């Protein structure tokens, strides 16, 4: 190999090391999520820190032998942000016009939380969760008032990517948090706003997850833990290299949890593996994984049941989620300034749902003149989806008009075939409110859907001066959805829909000093209606979620427009801070309009006009000796901006027809205005660490109270205190413990208005005298867990 080729190989290896170090190692010294990181202005090449560090080391070594060598300076590492779905060179944070939040594997492992959504809610500004289904693995997650939820029918507003593959399930755009391999996560970046390069459904932000590889994680470890509510969990991971060019990584985990309530047990099984080839110019990666989970929920319960918050409203309610996926990804440097990256994937997902439901028509007169005496129904539904797609991205580094420039062009195609079946069975309630089936299940729906999404995107970051940079982006999206009835009994279900739009973005960054970055940005995004929304959009033919499809009149796509200004910086060597103000307006927002009240799943989807989420974020972190303090304050003002009418007969302000009128300025339910978070880390000794999270979440309105006029008022805010600790017994062995809800606070994170049919003695069925109540999702009581982790190389 020539000297010139050897030099090029070394530079590219340094670049790769720089990217890995910047995203992972540069953040590893901080105790929690990094919300602000300022660096000196640099060119877009991510190789700068590694090259500078290498030069400094080389200079120091040569200086010992030759006193005439000029001293060199080691630059601070650059935090690299992935501003597109595909992995690639990335963009230095100083050039990114957004309040990006970054989390690494050490942060997640340190706190030992049961679920990923719980970690995000306890640590990241503007992130909250609500428990609408009564299972910790099925939380609704909100970021800046936008939702990523596993619940079919929830209007989704966040995109989630794993190694460049979008994991919002095509049928309903839901995010199943229980399928994400938490132990395999290397870094997470939460990118706010309507960044168009992330494609469909990025209305309020995108969560980009990168998984571990064996080269950067060449260790193995096994972990076991147990504690409250019969929770038992075990996991193992192993990473390493094979020769100079191959590395591998594997992890698997299993958990059984009886649940803190009477009917919310969980069984989790996950596995993930990756095999990777790297050389100076090329990286090829093949990853595969899967999950097989069984989740039970306790539902929301009426406030009159809160004397025993562990009891379910009705049961059974069960979700069986299984998934398998395969991803091939790679990138190649043609030279130091040209990189091509891409991926191809296949995912298989299956959800089998069993739910128990009160018959809201109990006691009414049937068409034949008889009285309806059916107490309940059992519903079984299955969603099976095969999704597949590919992406390709070209990155060019160079100069434009004498100015440093980074240009990215990409394209993506995603397709999915889904089948939905649903059957219903008449049932009656036992005294414990379990349902007993009467007769056989009868099929009601058998539908197939096909979705195809195409996207072409461009983004260019131009360094106008050493202090100023300009970013221009845009993406053209085209979506096609076909819905068909396979049973032959619902021809009105058949439909074909297409949506398309070009979404632009512009941002500018100002770096007056190495310790300060200021920015301003405007961007637009789009969410096309999902198959379940399109097939359940007729007010004259309401359907039951997530069960029944009836008709498909047109819905308009949701368009988001986001403005954001902010700044981030560093004070001295131990303090970082960030501040941001934003406003996102949605046109043609989609809501589920209940036909019989918010406590019921009977209804239809409708465009309700304009909504808005606007607010501020303040965050900072400082280190003082053995103490590290991280804090944030978030304010979100989420309101309707149009007038529309909703059926909510359980709302005390409803008219004689059970309708309420929502006016501009009314607050959107489930979104707290204020959240405050504080994380304290104390290194008591070199081996012993103690951490504490304090989370204050403000009050919220219940679903069904969209006009904010119900007599029950808001659901109260609450303060939670969690603690975690670890002790390094030996180099290989660590013991750890955690406590959630230390003060055993009784609280509720979700609410909906509805009718309580269990007003008989001992809360037994009394369908002739239902009472309008506020239903809530109680939070878990105090829990305690201990475990140990053994690591080897």
UniProtKB/TrEMBL annotation:
<keyword id="KW-0472">Membrane</keyword>
<keyword id="KW-0812">Transmembrane</keyword>
<dbReference type="InterPro" id="IPR039426">
    <property type="entry name" value="TonB-dep_rcpt-like"/>
</dbReference>
<dbReference type="Pfam" id="PF07715">
    <property type="entry name" value="Plug"/>
</dbReference>
<protein>
    <submittedName>
        <fullName>Outer membrane receptor proteins, mostly Fe transport</fullName>
    </submittedName>
</protein>
<keyword id="KW-0798">TonB box</keyword>
<dbReference type="InterPro" id="IPR000531">
    <property type="entry name" value="Beta-barrel_TonB"/>
</dbReference>
<feature type="signal peptide">
    <location>
        <begin position="1"/>
        <end position="36"/>
    </location>
</feature>
<keyword id="KW-0732">Signal</keyword>
<comment type="similarity">
    <text>Belongs to the TonB-dependent receptor family.</text>
</comment>
<feature type="domain" description="TonB-dependent receptor-like beta-barrel">
    <location>
        <begin position="277"/>
        <end position="742"/>
    </location>
</feature>
<keyword id="KW-0998">Cell outer membrane</keyword>
<dbReference type="InterPro" id="IPR037066">
    <property type="entry name" value="Plug_dom_sf"/>
</dbReference>
<dbReference type="GO" id="GO:0015344">
    <property type="term" value="F:siderophore uptake transmembrane transporter activity"/>
</dbReference>
<keyword id="KW-0813">Transport</keyword>
<keyword id="KW-0675">Receptor</keyword>
<feature type="region of interest" description="Disordered">
    <location>
        <begin position="53"/>
        <end position="72"/>
    </location>
</feature>
<dbReference type="Pfam" id="PF00593">
    <property type="entry name" value="TonB_dep_Rec_b-barrel"/>
</dbReference>
<keyword id="KW-1134">Transmembrane beta strand</keyword>
<dbReference type="GO" id="GO:0044718">
    <property type="term" value="P:siderophore transmembrane transport"/>
</dbReference>
<dbReference type="GO" id="GO:0009279">
    <property type="term" value="C:cell outer membrane"/>
</dbReference>
<dbReference type="InterPro" id="IPR036942">
    <property type="entry name" value="Beta-barrel_TonB_sf"/>
</dbReference>
<feature type="domain" description="TonB-dependent receptor plug">
    <location>
        <begin position="96"/>
        <end position="206"/>
    </location>
</feature>
<feature type="compositionally biased region" description="Low complexity">
    <location>
        <begin position="53"/>
        <end position="68"/>
    </location>
</feature>
<dbReference type="InterPro" id="IPR012910">
    <property type="entry name" value="Plug_dom"/>
</dbReference>
């Amino acid at each position: 190999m020539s000297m010139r080729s050897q030099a090029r190989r070394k530079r590219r290896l340094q670049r790769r090391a720089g990217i890995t170090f910047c995203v992972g190692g540069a953040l590893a010294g901080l105790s929690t999520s990094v919300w602000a990181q300022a660096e000196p202005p640099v060119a877009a090449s991510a190789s700068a820190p590694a090259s500078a560090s290498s030069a400094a080391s080389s200079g120091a070594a040569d200086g010992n032998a030759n006193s005439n060598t000029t001293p060199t300076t080691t630059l601070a590492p650059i935090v690299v942000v992935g501003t597109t779905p595909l992995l690639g060179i990335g963009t230095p944070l100083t050039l990114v016009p957004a309040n990006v939040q970054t989390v690494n594997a050490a942060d997640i492992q340190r706190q030992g939380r049961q679920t990923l959504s719980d970690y995000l809610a306890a640590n990241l500004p503007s992130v909250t969760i609500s428990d609408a289904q009564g299972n910790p693995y099925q939380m609704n997650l909100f970021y800046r008032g936008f939702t990523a939820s596993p619940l079919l029918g929830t209007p989704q507003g966040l995109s989630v990517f794993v190694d460049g593959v979008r994991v919002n399930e095509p049928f309903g755009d839901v995010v199943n948090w229980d399928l994400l391999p938490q132990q395999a996560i290397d870094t997470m970046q939460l990118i706010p706003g309507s960044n168009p390069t992330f494609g469909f459904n990025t209305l309020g932000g995108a969560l980009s997850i990168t998984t571990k590889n064996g080269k950067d994680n060449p260790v193995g470890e096994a972990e076991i833990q147990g504690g409250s509510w019969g929770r038992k969990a075990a996991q193992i991971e192993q990473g390493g290299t094979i020769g100079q060019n191959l590395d591998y990584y594997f992890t698997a985990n299993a958990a059984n949890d009886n649940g803190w309530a009477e009917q919310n047990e969980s069984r989790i099984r996950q596995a993930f593996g990756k095999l990777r080839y790297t050389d100076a110019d090329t990286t090829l990666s093949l990853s595969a994984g899967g999950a097989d989970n069984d989740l039970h929920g306790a539902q929301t319960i009426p406030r009159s049941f809160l004397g025993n918050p562990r009891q379910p409203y009705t049961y059974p309610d069960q979700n069986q989620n299984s998934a398998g996926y395969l991803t091939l990804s790679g990138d190649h440097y043609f030279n130091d300034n040209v990189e091509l990256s891409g991926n191809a994937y296949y995912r298989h997902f299956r959800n089998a749902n069993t739910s128990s439901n009160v018959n809201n028509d109990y006691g009414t007169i049937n068409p034949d003149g008889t009285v309806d005496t059916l107490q309940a129904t059992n519903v079984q539904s299955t969603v099976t989806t095969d999704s597949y797609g590919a992406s390709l991205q070209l990155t060019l580094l160079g100069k434009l008009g004498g100015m440093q420039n980074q240009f990215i062009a990409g394209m993506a195609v995603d397709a999915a075939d889904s089948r939905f079946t649903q059957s219903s069975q008449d049932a009656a309630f036992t005294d414990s409110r379990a349902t007993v089936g009467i007769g056989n299940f009868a099929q009601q729906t058998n539908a197939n859907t096909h979705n195809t999404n195409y996207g072409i995107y461009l983004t260019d970051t131009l360094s106008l001066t050493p202090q100023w940079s300009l970013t221009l982006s845009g993406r053209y999206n085209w979506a096609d959805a076909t819905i068909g009835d396979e049973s032959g009994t619902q021809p009105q279900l058949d439909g074909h829909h297409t949506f398309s739009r070009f979404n632009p973005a512009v941002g500018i960054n100002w770096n007056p000093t190495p310790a300060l970055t200021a920015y301003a940005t405007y961007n637009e995004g789009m969410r096309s209606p999902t198959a379940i929304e399109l097939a359940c959009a007729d007010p004259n033919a309401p359907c039951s979620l997530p069960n029944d499809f009836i008709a498909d009149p047109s819905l308009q796509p949701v368009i988001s427009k986001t403005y954001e200004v902010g700044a981030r910086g560093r004070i001295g060597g131990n303090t970082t801070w960030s501040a941001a103000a934003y406003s996102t307006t949605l046109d043609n927002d989609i809501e589920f309009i209940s036909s019989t009240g918010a406590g019921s799943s009977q209804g239809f989807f409708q465009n309700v006009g304009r909504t808005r989420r606007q607010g501020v974020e303040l965050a900072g972190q400082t280190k003082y000796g053995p103490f590290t303090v991280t804090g944030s304050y978030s304010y979100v003002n989420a309101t309707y901006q149009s007038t529309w009418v909703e059926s909510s007969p359980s709302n005390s302000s409803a008219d004689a027809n059970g309708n309420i009128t929502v006016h501009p300025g009314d607050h959107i339910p489930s979104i707290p205005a204020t959240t405050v978070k504080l994380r304290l880390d104390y290194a008591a000794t070199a081996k012993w660490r103690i951490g504490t999270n304090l989370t204050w979440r403000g009050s919220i309105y219940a679903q069904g109270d969209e006009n904010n006029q119900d007599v029950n008022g808001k659901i109260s805010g609450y303060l939670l205190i969690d603690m975690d600790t670890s002790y390094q017994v030996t180099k290989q062995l660590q013991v750890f413990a955690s406590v959630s809800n230390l003060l055993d606070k009784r609280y509720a994170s979700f609410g909906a208005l509805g009718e309580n049919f269990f007003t008989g003695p001992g809360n037994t069925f009394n369908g002739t005298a239902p009472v309008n109540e506020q239903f809530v999702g109680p939070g878990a009581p105090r829990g305690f867990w201990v475990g140990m982790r053994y690591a080897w190389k």
